[in-house]
Amino acid sequence: MKRLPESSVPPPAARAEVDLAAVATIDLGPMHPVALPAQVPDADALAGDLVTAYPPKVLRKRRRHIRSNDPDAIPEIEANVRTVPGIITQRGCCYAGCKGVVLGPVTDIVHIVHGPVGCSYYAWMTRRNQADVPEGAQNFLNYTFTTDMTEHEIIFGGEEKLARAIREAYDLFHPKAIAVFSTCPVGLIGDDVHAVATQMRKELGINVFGFSCEGYKGVSQSAGHHIANNGLFKHVVGTEELPESLKQNPFRVNLLGEYNIGGDAFELERVFARCGIELVSTFSGNAQYSELAHSQDANLNLIMCHRSINYMAEMMETKYGIPWIKVNFIGAESTAKSLRKIARYFDNPELTARVEAVIAEEMAAVEPVRAEIRSRVAGRPVMLWVGGSRAHHYQALFADLAMPTVAAGYEFAHRDDYEGSSVLGSITIDADSRNIEEIEVAPDPAEYRPRKSVDQVAELAANGLKLGEYEGMMAEMSKGAMIVDDISHAELERLIEAYHPALVCSGIKDKYVIEKMGVPCKQLHNYDYGGPYAGFRGAINFYREIDRMVGAKVWSLITPPWATASAAPSKH
Ligand code: CFM
Predict the structure, then answer these.
(1) For 516-542, what is each residue's pLDDT tens digit?
(2) Do 405 and 383 meet the contact criterion of CB atoms below 8 Å apart?
(3) What is d(CA 301, CA 307) in angstroms, rounded to the nearest whole number?
(4) Active-site hit among 79, 93, 177, 343
(5) Parallel, antiparallel, or unpaired: how do β-strands 177-182 and 207-211 relate?
(6) Model pTM score
(7) Taking residues 491-502, what's their average pLDDT?
(8) Is the CB of 97 inside a 6 Å radius of any atom of ligand 1?
(9) Residue ranges in 18-124 assigned as alpha helix (H)
């Protein structure tokens, strides 16, 4: 734990009054979605409609990515395949997923991009992952490091220049670790970044490791997540010992897949500290190298963004025996539920009472704001088209406000993020995934330590807490809601015409198209310069912002392009 924001706050006073027996029966299962408005289009009919303009082959392909939801009979959806050329997608590249997403937020690693300077420019502070490091600790997030590959290296090879860059960075900053990220040309010309990393590790005596995360690998940034997980697991996790001071608290967890966008991790650090939960390491928002390096001694892994980091959780479970649970700290209700999951896992009356007292105090601050704003926005429909987890997680925040999600989809998630982890066995590995290394992991003879017995795991499942499972987006969406994977701009525009949402959540590539249609758009990648939105205080921030956006009069001054068509919908 870096700072002690409110860990020194005395334990909440209400602890003695907590009814532990009642807490043990609280349902920790899937969220009940907000009922769809009475007049929504028939998603099946609309799905056919969305693709009619495409040539036949494209039509067939795209149709497999579009489904009418049924939480009781989860439909199969196509996902994690190549985007059809010519279609405007919102996806990023493999290098973005590895450097930008998973490794980039670690504050004290020097991240060197081996490639042309443009690749580095686009990875420089563009994701709003924030840092608040302890006094005296290193923080390189404001820097960008690149080898500035040019024609010379493309022709004669770039390994020497990379070695020079690593040496120069070391001489200037003396970091604990240096990571090297390959962009497209590196793979094309065949530079061996791993050999250079090994050589420099020996020369400098610090950890230097490389990633073959060339942008073209895989069909989206998802490939980069996997490559990043593998590299972190091989080169960092388990390389240091957990400090004695952290071993005192048995309730120690890692938070996987939380990247501190807009300060989300700060709020979660605050809440965990209040609850008496020791956060060993976050992967990787506001994280330091050593925290990742000694994370193998945590007793539970919490997965926020399943898409980007599920591999790490599985590998840590196999090697060290750390179980994982899926959590969602987006939305006040789901934050409370996630904290209760942690308490149920540790099964300790003191911890449970404290967690309940924190929930009671925090919810007391949330409730008045939520009640007031809900009275204005309840029933207003929303759509979410984001990444690989937020299109699911943020539905919980809208559910807090009784706003129904009428349509949603990810950009690059896999079938299990939609349909649940039970489908994992039926997902076939295609040629695009085959070039990503699957590392063989076995229990560590010295460090494997099962945290729960088989009987305890069964008992937890009987008490509503399933370890190592993720239900996916579809289980928590209404029957008849529209699901579209890797949505195109053309499809999105048709959906806006059909549903007239009060708000769309998406990214910068389509934000202004949506707003020109007279519909407010909240960017859920970088939060439009806002945040935090996680945890209890984050939920309050988000409610206020949604209220302001949905209630703004400016939208009624815009004439949507379809307003002149015969079936013109009314303006907002
Ligand atoms: Fe996970 Fe993310 Fe997301 Fe993601 Fe991303 Fe992101 Fe995202 Mo943008 S790791 S999958 S690759 S939660 S950068 S912090 S917002 S697309 S939904």
Answers:
(1) 999 999 999 999 999 999 999 999 999
(2) yes
(3) 15
(4) 93
(5) parallel
(6) 0.95
(7) 96
(8) yes
(9) 20-24, 43-50, 56-63, 94-95, 117-121
